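Hi R.,

Here's the chain you asked about this morning:
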Amino acid sequence: MGTAGHIDHGKTALIKALTGVDTDRLKEEKERGITIELGFASLALKSGLRLGIVDVPGHEKFVKNMVAGAGGIDMVVLVIAADEGVMPQTREHLDICSLLEIKEGIVALTKIDLVDEEWLDLVKDDIEEFLKGTFMEGSPVVPLSSVTGEGLPEFLSVLDKVASGIPERHDTGIFRLPVDRVFTMKGFGTVVTGTLMSGEVKVGDTVEILPEQRITAKIRGIQVHNEAAEKAETGQRTAVNLQGIEKTRIQRGDVLAHAGALAPSGRFDISFKYLSCAGRKLQNRALVRFHSGTSEIISRLLLIGRDEMEPGEAGYAQVFLGTPTTAVAGDRFVIRSYSPVTTIGGGKILDPLACKHKRHSDRTKSDFNLLQDGADPEKTGIIINRVDLDGITLPELVVRTGINPNRLDGILREMSSKRQVTMLNRDAVSIVSSAAYKGFQEKILSKIKAYHKKFPLQEGLLKEELRTEAGRFIDSGLFSMAISDLEKTGEIVTDKKNVRIADYAVNLDGKLMGLREETEKIYLKSGLTPPSAKELPARLKEGGDQIETVIKVMLNEGALIKVSEGMCFHKDIVIKLRKDYRNLLQKDGKSTPASFKDMTGLSRKFIIPLMEYFDRTRLTIRVGDHRVLRERKEQ
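And here is the predicted structure, written out as tokens:
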């Protein structure tokens, strides 16, 4: 529960009358008799509910403090003094609560001990008229006096009834605690407080303090509603005792989160309403004060699809933050003008990690419409398309869509079954759109084909060179998966280093064809004593510098068989030798290097590589110091 209302209308006095806690704790507040900083208390209701209470300042100079406190509340008590009625900060505070989409409220009509019944009735009528068209239209109006106690029992009863009807807060599962207060407690150290926006946190957890310093600290203790607890959950007023960190390293506007769960951003996509009371047109690139969570950041608004906005209009924009901060899609915000400082609008964050857009593009407008009003699968698709080939994990999708992870998991399964997304790096479950993945595969095929055309005598493109050509900063897992899938579908062929189109073969013509014919004659004539790769050029009439290309072609065609590094035989020679070797093995039952030499007349230079080749090609198997036929051994 949060308070709202004009200065000196009795917000702090009401909280003290209800709870016994004076939320004005600063010396200056007591001396001046006004609330400057946020105050906190808690209240146990008869129903068993326990309210965390945020008391906000009413003075116009401290509205930014009021916004910092209002961001986490579920219901508001709009305090209006009976002797003054609706005042400027009453209106501004109600606007802020509307922009933050607070759904429930009660009017506390205070100081009734200072007015008569006739005046009180007039003020009630005025309030009823004031609330028309707002989320508080028809809300209970409870007259009371914090001094005499009149009306307090009735107010507590109404408060209990309204609070009991508030549904549970939407929970993305991401622990976030926007810091609204930091102080040091003797014997404990640094303590921060805030309203836990989502998720949960436990004693002993390690948390990250965002956005600027990305420092970590361990949670030494937790209090919920001023009572020690082992954990805190969504919606609770929470105090956290941090171990090993100085107070000076944390400030209001920072956010506590589990490590790696959130990333600072300097650019948000937003939908927002420009208040009719703003008075003048809002220009593109206007300098504003952007209030999100408990932070206030000087920023610029880049209007989408227009160059100006009339008071009372709603639209889309991208906000460029002067200082990065963290947020989750669906978070509410308030915008105040840079100077003079007044509340001029607010709305909802659509994408907290936004990319650059063409402002007047139909595609941009369409994407914003879907992020604002689309179904969850449509929002998910927009964000996945935005990351293109960078991929996105499930936790990152939660941040950028605001959809609960269990719901998102179901959406992704359905999208995967419809072949709308492709899952990569399966351990981390990284996701890209199937369209982007297919486009990447087509780019790979295009690069390989272009290489074949440019270098027709090369067998294939080096994998590392292909990765650079296809996208230097592409994730290695994505590249490997794309290559593997293309190979499975038979579109490419790979070896240890190279990649080629499946049906590609080097075509020799002219002099190279003549060189091939001459080479084949040499291998046939050499029989079982072919020249090595180094010796071959000396036996050729010409073209020795291109023999390597010719040998590769002949190996791919199967005209030559590579027995060992630098040693090739003509296929006809190997086929005949294999037949003779089989006959020898069938006759003697085994073979040794000596018997192989007797059969062929070869030296060990050729005997050992040939015998090992027949082992590899599964004709023979080695047993001790001799070989036997593999098929006989298997029988």
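One quick note: The first strand starts at residue 2 and ends at 4.

Cheers,
M.
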